[in-house]
Structure formats: C-alpha cells, structure tokens
Amino acid sequence: METHPDFKRLFTQKESIALTGKNYTNVTKLIGMLTFAFLVIGFANGSLTYLNQKVNDAFVKWITLKIPGGQVAKVYDIEATLNTTDLKEKYKYTEVNTYKNYYLPFYVKNTTDSILRGYGRSFQFDEPLVEKVFDAENNEFVGQHFQDGEDIGLVLTKDFLKKFGYSETDAFVQIAVDTSTLGNPSASMPVPIPIRAVVKSLPGASQMAFTPYFYQQHSVQRYVAKKGRPFNPLHHSLKVNDSQLFYHVNTTNKQLISAIESNINYFFTHTQKYAHLSPTIRPEPNEYVNEGENIKIIFYERMSFETITAIHNDLYDFLQHANQEQAALCQRVYAHELGDLPSNYLLSPDYLSINLLNANRVRDLRDFIRTTYQLEIDISRIEALENYHLVAFLTKSLAMVLLGFSLLSVCLYSNNLLSSHLKKIEMNLGTFKAFGLSEKELQQIYITIMLTIVAAAMIIALAITCLLGYFGLFSTVLQLFTETKLEAEQTYFLPNYIVLSCLLIMGISYMSIRYIIKKNLHKTPGDLIYGRET
Predict the structure, then answer these.
(1) Strand 330-333's sheet: what is its strand order?
(2) Do 463 and 391 reside in the same domain of the chain?
(3) Which of 12, 261, 467, 525 could form a disulfide with 433 if both were Cys (CB 3.0 to 4.6 A apart)?
(4) What pTM was estimated for this model as a whole?
C-alpha cells in the first residue's frame, strides 16, 4: 500500500524542521565547520600559487657571480673560460654573460622638481636571458625588443611605472641629466629616453634594463672621453639642438600627423614674432620608440638653446590651444652626441650571469669557481626553490589532513544528529511502519532531508568563503602580522580543491547517512515501538 503524498509531504516538512534545529542551530554548526575547512583549503592553494610564482619565475635558472673590485681586470678571462664547451657539459649550464648594475635619476611624470632614483642592470643584446625578459606569456611583455646592441631605449617594469607615475602607453621616460659641465653644479633637466618595452619583472628586483652601450654612453663617456654627458642637450659641442626642434608624435594615424604638421606650419607663418624664421618642417624616420612618427623643424640661423626652448614653449602652447588631444601626442626629443669609446677601454661589469640547464650540478659548479677563482656564486634562488618544494609538500599534506578532518567532522556530526533524532522518535517510526509506511520510503525521506541540509550548508559556507577570500581577508591578516611586502592584486585565496571537497563530502555523507538509516530502520515495528535491540 502506497503512502498518501500529503502525509509524506507533511512528514518530510516536520522532520526537516526538527533536524535543522531550533533557529537553524544544526545548520549553522555545519556552516561553521565547512567555512573553516574551505578557508583553509583556499588559503593553502592561494598561498602555494603565489609562492610558486615568486620562486619559479622566469629567471630561476640564472645564478649570479659577483666580481670584487680586485678581480675586474680578469672578468673577461673568467667569462671566456666558463664558456668553454667542456665546463658547460660538465656542470650543466648553457652560457655565461657579464652585466652591470646602475642607478639612474628620473623625473616623476609631469613634474620638474621631483627626482627619484631607479635601479637597473644591463643585458647583452643577444644573451639567452633576454628571451625570458621579452616573454609575453610569463613576463607580461608589452612593446618591442632591443633594436640592436646600440639601442638606447629602456625596458621598464610595472613597479617602475607605478613608482614614477608613467603608464604602459607612454613612449618616453624623463631622465634627469646633469648639466653641471656648463658651470652650474646643481643644474639638471629632464631628457626623454625611449621606453622600449614594459615587463612584469626583471632579475634581481631591477626596475629597468638597458644595453651596455646605453650604460657606456650615459655614464662612462663622461669620464673617459671628457666630452660631458652625451645625453646633455646643452653640451657645447652639440650644436644641432641650437638650430633644430625634434618632436615624436605618438600615433600611427596619418591624418592626425598631417593635421599636427599643418598646425606647426600655421604657427610659424602666422605668428609675427617667428614669421621671419621660415623653418623647414618635415617628417623623419622613427628612430625612437615602437610606434609613431617624428617631425623635424630646421631653422636656418643658429640660436641659443634657450631661444629654441622659448620657441618650443610658444609652439606647444599654440598646439594646446588649437587641439589639446593633438598636443598631448607631441613629445619634444633631442639629438644625442653618441660616440665610440677609446679602443683600450673595457667596461667593468659587476656580475657574471650563468644560465643553468638544471640545478643538479650547481653546488659542484660553486665549488669549482670557489677553488679556481676564489669567487662565490649566489645560489640563494636555487636553495629557495628547494625549500619551496619542501614547504609545498608540507602545506599540501596539511591541507589534505585538514580536508580529511573536515570530512570526518561533517560526517560524524550529521550522523550523530540523525542517529540521535531517529533514536528519539523510534516509537513513532515503529507506529508509522505498522500502519504501512515502508522502510524504503523512510530511507528516501531522511536521505533527502539530510543531503539537503548538508548541501545548503555547503553552498552558504562556500559563498562566505569566497567573499572573505576574494575581498582580502588573508592579505589583511598577513599585512597585520607579517612584514612581507604583499601585492595589491594577490588575494592569497584560490578555491582549486573546494569543488572536489564538496563532491567528497556529499558522497561520503550519502553513504554514511544511508548506513545510519538502515541500521536504525531495519527493525520490525514492534522492536522500534518497544525499543528492543536486535
């Protein structure tokens, strides 16, 4: 005989209320247990992912060898020896290159008095590490490679842009050029240097990268060639900046470029103060940055740099008044007096960079270099990688233990809740069975009720977990209790295994609830009514 649907619906409703507890206390306890479990799992996975990004970055297989001052003269001999095929095969590395660390002063964007220093390093134009730097997928590379070994453009990190107020769309960055060679010891002026590319990060926490040629031209030539800084537009031997104006137009739109040229021509033909100059205005090949065109304005009489600058100021004011959007695309640039260094001069690098095939022989390589050259390799990144694997294993193991504990807790709690409830009402259940309510129907009713309670608790717990995780609970806690520099976009939360955990909880809950129901309801109606054990 089949039970009437109305009775089953009423029975299910009353039992659901009883099992959820007064004011949903039983469900609340389940939500608390599941929220804790999901938070731990999410935090463990998010932290491991973050640590993995930090340690296993694109540059982990490059180790450095610092060159003391007394060994600088031998550095090229050391480089040549380490680049021999026998040593490469024996110690499992591919190439050794030199590089130079260097600080450069930069103007904060749109200021004329705020100067900060940026830290950078040189890259050989064709060394393997450059491929990792210009990796769009892993290093978020945007822009263009170094054009050649004599490129004077800079590769900047996103941290650099944030520090100095620039954006990825800017074509130039303003370096502070010392003009003290003219007798003013405190003078400096902003000079635009092309931004070749923007990347997420560079080795050694560098904020910028440049070619050795740029370093030579910017720093060394001042002291060796005695010509003053070649990027100094005021230099007495560089007369081109006294007779020409150079502009880079940061657009590929031919109509805009033509409109800007027309406005420049209109300025010189209709401004009485400058009408007599009759300059030639012509486009130039783009030698500066990745996109856009250059405009050169040639005057046929030599003027002082101050006069040329006054003309530029008036012209730029005119362009802004005519069309601010067009004026914003125009960047004044300068000609630079770049030249060769004396043939007997060698750049003195600070470090050797070694590209490892794998880390299996790195300690043997360290011992060889220590014995042969009395130099020390920095293998801290390799050691950090090894430590990471240990920490990752321990963290994953702990996450699995906590997951198992959570599964056990949820199952034990739901089983005890159901078992104690069935024990409390077994006389009623015996009566219902005696009047025709089958054991199969009771099993279906209680399995449905308990799985609904567990599923509802999981959904609410998961929502709470995601809200807390993605809105910065963990980063806030870490910021309060650690001194670690945290990244703004990092939430330290990743619910990778939470879906798997939910499926496991539901599966195990189903089996355990089914077992409890069968254990308590397989008795005869008489055994249930009189509380007899079988």
Answers:
(1) 280-284, 293-298, 244-249, 330-333
(2) yes
(3) 525
(4) 0.65
